[in-house]
């Protein structure tokens, strides 16, 4: 079952993000890795900035989470994570399908350039990589991230025919 996460889910969201983000250890640039990957204060800031988390609940427990955030004239998919123990069971796909129904705006997704599995996942679901210059423009316009993260990230845009 997919449901909107509540304040009561805060620590569970944090747990899922940090568990799933372990896949980035040794993959993303070392200067971008930290432990924990997402501290409590950052999650609180993301929610305060308008990221709305949705969760995939299985047997009464959240197995995965994905955020959606309207920014200017687009919608961002943010912080998409599935517990390590239940990966490759369609949880991320189900969450993405659901979040896509929540907006008519163009959808953008940012991820680490070295996270090839994540890029393949989004491409499989109809997203295309933005070119280098376009990626930089989009990251600067729609995300609040440091330059180093812009250098080491990619943006995928939904193939809906919307100009961005």
Produce the secondary structure layout.
Elements: E1 2-4, H1 10-20, H2 40-48, E2 52-58, E3 61-71, E4 74-82, H3 91-100, E5 107-112, H4 116-124, E6 127-129, H5 132-142, H6 147-151, E7 153-158
Parallel strand pairs: 4-5
Antiparallel strand pairs: 1-2, 2-3, 3-4, 5-7, 6-7
Structure description:
It is built from 6 helices and 7 strands; from the N terminus they run βααβββαβαβααβ. It has helices spanning 10-20, 40-48, 91-100, 116-124, 132-142, 147-151, and strands at residues 2-4, 52-58, 61-71, 74-82, 107-112, 127-129, 153-158. A hairpin with a 2-residue loop joins β2 (52-58) and β3. The model has no long low-confidence stretch (mean pLDDT 95). It has a single domain, classed as 3-Layer(aba) Sandwich (Aminopeptidase), CATH 3.40.630. The chain has 164 residues and is α+β, with helices and mostly antiparallel strands. It has a 7-stranded mixed beta sheet, with helices on both faces.
List keywords for this structure.
about 160 residues; alpha+beta; 7-stranded mixed beta sheet; 7 strands; about 35% helix; about 25% strand
CATH fold annotation = Aminopeptidase
The name of the CATH architecture is 3-Layer(aba) Sandwich
Please state how the strands of the largest beta sheet are arranged side by side: 1-2-3-4-5-7-6
Give the class-level CATH name. Answer: Alpha Beta
Global geometry: globular
- How many domains is the backbone divided into? 1
| Share in β-strands | 25-35%
Mean pLDDT: 95
Task: Please give the share of residues in helix.
Answer: 25-40%
**Main beta sheet, described?**
7 strands, mixed
CA-atom Rg in angstroms: 15 Å
Number of helices, where a helix is a run of at least 4 consecutive DSSP H or I residues: 6
